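Students often ask why we bother encoding 3D structure as a string. The short answer is that it lets us treat folding as translation between two languages. Here is a chain of 229 residues written in the first language.
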Amino acid sequence: MKSNKRENAIKFEGERVSYRKRGFRYGCYCFVKRLFDIVSSGLMILILSWFILLCLLIKWLEDFHNPVYLSKRVGKDGRIFKIAKIRTMVPNAEQMKQQLIDAGLNEADPPAFKMKNDPRITRVGKFFRKFSIDELLQLFNIFGGSMSVIGPRPPLPEEVAEYTEDQLHRLDIKGGLLCLWQIKRKRNEVSFDEWVKLDVEYIRKQSLWLDFKILVKGAFMVVFDHSGE
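And here it is in the second language, the structure alphabet:
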């Protein structure tokens, strides 16, 4: 098992200085955070299972393709895992992405990719994204331990391949569903460098109080504030 885990992880050259905290107090924080992840995601799965199944059915009826999208992501210390989402794009979205990049239509700072009016997103997908419904399947990632409720958004392997040494610090802790970047107004206008700075700021300041503030503000923005669209 250990050898498989090593094979399914990005290998870093040389020794990296980690920004993660250490010690007994931080260990207690990690224990409480993991406990919250298990309890909260487990309850949400039980409560919303019927709604998730309904959304999967609606998405399947839109184009009769697999409504579940699995994407390889990079987690803590470079470990590769698969993130689950309700598909919001056309089936050939990955091929179209490179065409859009080649056409110079990427509106985000590389290695990230963003478009305000992304032609790959379907009508149902736009609605799901507006209320973050497509992210609900990540509750299973959180329950299983590959993600946390709060933490930097897990990046794509091809994005990590272009990271600088400083940007690799985003991988010092487990990736999450919500982060400081996501609770910013007009978050899609935030540069990639600023995005990384916010993630590093979170890693350095981790606390239950900070997690609580991100959780409350994130819930507010999902329901009332869609400035990040």
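Translate back mentally: The longest helix spans residues 24-63. Keep this in mind for the problem set.
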